[in-house]
Design goal:
The complex is a heterodimer of chains A (114) and B (114). Helix content of chain A is 0%, strand content 48%. Chain A is built from no helices and eleven strands. Chain A is globular. The N and C termini of chain A lie far apart (36 Å). In chain B, strands 2, 5, 6, 10, 11 and 12 form a six-stranded mixed sheet that branches. A four-stranded antiparallel sheet of chain B has the order 3-9-8-7, with no helix packed on it. In chain B, β5 and β6 form a beta hairpin. Chain B is globular. The termini of chain B are far apart. The chains are: A mainly beta (114), B mainly beta (114). At the A-B interface, β10 of A face β6, β10 and β11 of B.
Chain lengths: 114, 114
């Protein structure tokens, strides 16, 4: 089955630690995205990538980093510089980065900072 | 700047009753409009989208939405809800002058009474 997988489902981190969230897709999509979701708020874009080895900052990139070494993978690192990292993180992909392209979402990773 | 407003944080509907979820947007030109649904602890799934043409759009799971330019609205409707429709619903707007990003509403949580 084609889709997007995110791991782990739940992640706990101590303050001051970096942590990496995994996102893999087998849909052969060029574009991939990372969103952050907080209660009572819409999704906010952290980073996006239109093609391998290229990525751009979204609205809330500070304290986060990404890489896109392979078409199917777009890991997100939450660094210790992120002041309030506890949130639900969603990865998505689309055929291209046109607005007409549907974004398909993974099941999400819930990160809790202890 | 573009914005999306979903005025209702929660809506409670009896099973079998009709449903309307409101979405208002702020954008000068004709936007690209989307409705997504999120089950608890899961990713988002596209219900329907509007780009142009017929202003009444049919989606999956028996949902429809109507684009009303004069009211800057894109309300989601369903004639008869089922208990499985309990979820959170997000409206999103895409605009070419927002760097092709989606702007998300804060979501409306739908509660179904038996």
């Amino acid at each position: 089955d084609g889709g997007i997988t995110q791991s782990p489902k739940y992640l706990f981190r101590k303050e001051g630690q970096n942590v990496t969230l995994s996102c893999e897709q087998n849909l052969n999509h060029d574009a991939m995205y990372w969103y952050r979701q907080d209660p009572g708020q819409g999704l906010r874009l952290i980073y996006y990538s239109q093609i391998v080895n290229d990525f751009q900052k979204g609205d809330i990139a500070e304290g986060y980093s990404v890489s896109r070494e392979k078409k199917e993978s777009f890991p997100l690192t939450v660094t210790s510089a992120q002041k309030n990292p506890t949130a639900f993180y969603l990865c998505a992909s689309s055929t291209d980065r046109l607005l007409t392209d549907t974004q398909y979402f993974g099941p999400g990773t819930r990160l809790t900072v202890l | 700047a573009q914005s999306v407003t979903q005025p209702d944080i929660h809506i409670t509907v009896s099973e079998g009753a009709s449903l309307e979820l409101r979405c208002n947007y702020s954008y000068g030109a004709t936007p690209y409009l989307f409705w997504y649904v999120q089950s608890p602890g899961q990713g988002l799934q596209l219900l329907l989208k509007y780009f142009s043409g017929d202003t009444l759009v049919q989606g999956i799971k028996g949902f429809e939405a109507e684009f009303k330019r004069s009211q800057s609205s894109f309300n989601l409707r369903k004639p008869s809800v089922h208990w499985s429709d309990a979820a959170e619903y997000f409206c999103a707007v895409g605009a070419t002058d927002s760097n092709y990003q989606l702007i998300w509403g804060a979501g409306t949580k739908l509660i179904i009474k038996p």
